[in-house]
Amino acid sequence: MNTVHTTAPTPALDIQRLRITLPGTARPVLDGIDLHVDAGETVALVGESGSGKTLTSRSALKLLPPGADVQGAVLVGGQNVLTMNPDQLRALRTGQVAMIFQDPRAALNPLRRIGDFLTESVTLTRVMPTTRADATARAVELLQAVGLDSSALRKYPSQVSGGMLQRVMIAAALMGDPALLLADEPTTALDVTTQAEVIALLAELRERFGTGLLFVTHDLDLAAAISDRVYVMYAGRIAESGPAEALFAHPRHPYTAALLASTPRLEAPVGRLAAIDGQPPDLRQELHGCPFAARCPLATEICDRQAPEPVRAPDLPDHQAACHHTDRLEGSPVDV
Ligand SMILES: Nc1ncnc2c1ncn2[C@@H]1O[C@H](COP(=O)(O)OP(=O)(O)O)[C@@H](O)[C@H]1O
Ligand code: SF4
Ligand SMILES: [Mg+2]
């Protein structure tokens, strides 16, 4: 009899108990982050500004602030990037993992033609050298995939619009055939129509190339529209994670519920648009309990004393919330 061994495929990204402490702070800036992106999956990382989204996504490239004390593991295709040597890191950054930034213009040299920008990363730095002709052919193919033609190769960044430039950045990111694409607020600098086009394009490319996508945003509607799964961050921790549909329909963490209640919606009556009162805790402040306690309408005495561990939803184990009183939210998307 033949025995069939089935093993789970290696995730594109698997962050395990990541803890980062920066010099001169009273508590870790990232505290026990667990996050994974499967091959071909789109995962959104959402949260207010300063919650640690950018640091988390940059950890996949080991792009960390100077002096950072780092614990835990960041596995890309099963390899821990935190222990890689410089050669391995260079290969990682020009091959397996690519990043699309918020402002494409700031990431491009205005004096270099788009064609040179697209081809130089693979011809100059890739461990397996690629000929210039092969690189150009690949650049043309990818420009077409993002809806541009080869005439873009000869243009300078100043000759194309912001939306076109973000398409160029996406094409550049795909040049090294990455298994993982990190997009950090990639549409924030674009107008609404172009934003929608870039989002549709990312979704299409994900399907076509099977790339895992970690999409960082503070925009909940965008996260809901694009992602399979969502992680909600608060003060350097994962407050809630789960399938996008379940998380947005039935949030299990008061912070997610409050964020959803404060997101402006056309159909919402005036008066429901209040922002969440108060501020996230400062990095100079030590935390002993739940980081959201000072702003949370459900907080009780235990919340100040004991940090909550993730609790699985009874009907959906993949949906987890780090909250002592998650049961009190059941069935209620916004009533906190
Ligand atoms: N290089 C750095 N040096 C010192 N503090 C930093 C550095 N990078 C980020 N931080 C701090 O870490 C926290 C998280 O930052 P970040 O990951 O950029 O948040 P987000 O992307 O969610 O807005 C913030 O409080 C920020 O001030
Ligand atoms: S643990 Fe307590 S303070 Fe934290 S979110 Fe839950 S109820 Fe609110
Ligand atoms: Mg950021």
Automatic annotation (TrEMBL):
Domain ABC transporter intervals: 13-260
CDD domains per the UniProt record, alphabetical: ABC_NikE_OppD_transporters
Region (Disordered): 309-336
Keywords annotated in UniProt: ATP-binding, Cell membrane, Membrane, Nucleotide-binding, Transport
UniProt GO molecular function: ATP binding; ATP hydrolysis activity
GO BP annotations, alphabetical order: peptide transport
Localization per record: Cell membrane
Record-linked InterPro entries: AAA+_ATPase (IPR003593), ABC_Ni/Peptide_Import (IPR050388), ABC_transporter-like_ATP-bd (IPR003439), ABC_transporter-like_CS (IPR017871), Oligopep_ABC_C (IPR013563), P-loop_NTPase (IPR027417)
Gene3D superfamilies: P-loop containing nucleotide triphosphate hydrolases
Membrane topology: Peripheral membrane protein
SMART domains per the UniProt record, alphabetical: AAA (SM00382)
Record's GO cellular component terms: plasma membrane
Family per record: Belongs to the ABC transporter superfamily.
NCBIfam families: oligo_HPY (TIGR01727)
Name listed for the protein in its UniProt record: ABC transporter ATP-binding protein
Species per Swiss-Prot/TrEMBL record: Streptomyces xanthii
Organismal lineage: Bacteria, Bacillati, Actinomycetota, Actinomycetes, Kitasatosporales
